[in-house]
């Protein structure tokens, strides 16, 4: 898996107090999240991050949402 940390734009659904990525935009492509495989949180001091391991078309992506800055990042990619 290629580790990167690039800012991305993400379209999400909010269900109650849950956030669910629907698609994201990377390298001039729109990638629809077909499955969310794992969700967890982490903290760095007072900052909270949501981490999503997602798959789409046989490829895997790790997304991070910075709750304090309201920004998304693509953390890692594994594509064919």
- Strand content is over 45%
Shape: globular
- Uncertain runs are none
Count every helix, treating DSSP H or I runs of 4 or more residues as helices: 0
Strand order of the largest sheet: 3-2-1-7-6-5-4
| Protein structure class | mainly beta
Distance between the termini: 11 Å
Radius of gyration: 12 Å
Query: How many β-strand runs?
Result: 7
Tell me roughly what share of residues is in helical segments: under 10%
Instruction: Return the string of H and E elements.
Output: EEEEEEE
Q: Give the rounded overall mean pLDDT.
A: 96
What's the story with the biggest beta sheet?
7 strands, antiparallel
Number of domains: 1
How would you summarize what this structure contains?
The protein is mostly beta strands. It has strands at 2-15, 18-26, 29-32, 35-44, 47-56, 59-66, 71-78.
Name some characteristics of this structure.
globular, 80 residues, seven-stranded antiparallel β-sheet, 79% strand, mainly beta, single chain
Description:
The chain is built from no helices and seven strands. The chain is mainly β and 80 residues long. The protein has one domain. It has a seven-stranded antiparallel sheet, with no helix packed on it. The protein is globular, with a radius of gyration of 12 Å. The protein starts with a strand and ends with a strand.
